[in-house]
Amino acid sequence: MQSTKSILLAFLAFGLVLNSCKKDEEDPETPAPSAAAPSSPIPAPTGSDGALVAIHTATYITAPIVGEIYQPIGVGVAVFGDLVNGTFENVGTVSLNGNNFTSQSNQSYVYTPSATDIDGIDLSTDINWNVSGGGSFSSFAASPNNEIPSGPKYSGPTTIPRTAAFTLSSSTQILSADSIIFNVISPSGNLLKTVAGNISSVEFTAAEMGTLAAGNGYVQIVPYNIEAQTIGGKQIYLINESVSTNAVTFQ
Fold first, then answer.
1. Mode of pairing for the β-strands spanning 234-250 and 159-160
2. Can you tell me the distance from the alpha carbon of 99 to that of 129, in angstroms, rounded to the nearest whole number?
3. How far is Cα 14 from Cα 119, in angstroms, rounded to an integer?
4. What is the pLDDT along the chain (251 residues), one digit of tens a residue?
5. d(CA 247, CA 251)
6. pTM of the model as a whole
7. Starting at the edge strand that comes first in sequence, how are the strands of the sheet with 140-142 ordered?
8. Radius of gyration of the chain (CA)
């Protein structure tokens, strides 16, 4: 597992399609506290000049008659400059597999699916990045040697007690991951642990769970791989990530 500093990039708050996890209805006059819909946790390697992140949301939808359907959604993020402190540069246009990204006010680049393209970017085969160049960055093309990690899938309980240890695990095998982030998100905060890519589950102790607030929240399993390439004298990290996000209730 490579040593990286993990940050949550707030501009990744695109509309996640969560697994069908129906909760008990609450009294409309006293709604349960709810955590904000989470963004995808992305590792920010220290000492890098940029990161190109291909993100595959592992989404499972329950439909009438046919049952569970796997519906992956491909999105992406690109940032250039000081990744840890969030001071980014404009580098012209950025595209992934021919899909142009949108530059944000903080000079990050994001691709999110549109109403007419709900599946987003096809990341099932090659991953090809193109940057037109700008600022201190020349134009370049880059492709990682790694593929998007397979899985993950959460099949655990949707109601989780805060008085006992909780094990967060994937019910499907995860492949092609250097590391895996396990994230438990409550209305009061979250518990995040990053482990090696061959570890399929993580336990959060009763003491750790007791620090969370009751209410509606989420669990996330995020396997990723990361590769450094030197391009035009710049250290660029190519990151491939799969994200499984599920709605749960903490009691």
1. parallel
2. 9
3. 13
4. 444 444 434 333 333 333 333 444 445 567 889 999 888 888 877 789 999 999 999 877 777 887 777 778 999 999 999 887 888 999 999 999 999 999 999 999 999 998 888 899 999 889 999 999 999 999 999 999 999 999 899 999 999 999 999 999 999 999 999 999 999 999 999 999 999 999 999 999 999 999 999 999 999 999 999 999 999 999 999 999 999 999 999 99
5. 13
6. 0.85
7. 99-100, 94-96, 129-131, 140-142
8. 18
Residue 119, Cβ density class (10 Å: 0-12 exposed, 13-18 middle, ≥19 buried): exposed
Torsion 37-42-47-48 (CA) sign: negative
CA distances in angstroms from 128 to 35, 45, 50, 117, 237, listed in the order given: 35, 21, 16, 19, 14
- The first and second tokens of residue 27, run together, are 């009294």
Confirm if 108 and 42 have CB atoms less than 8 A apart: no
DSSP conformation class of 23: P
Annotate 186-200 with DSSP letters as a single string. Answer: ETTEEEEEEEETT--
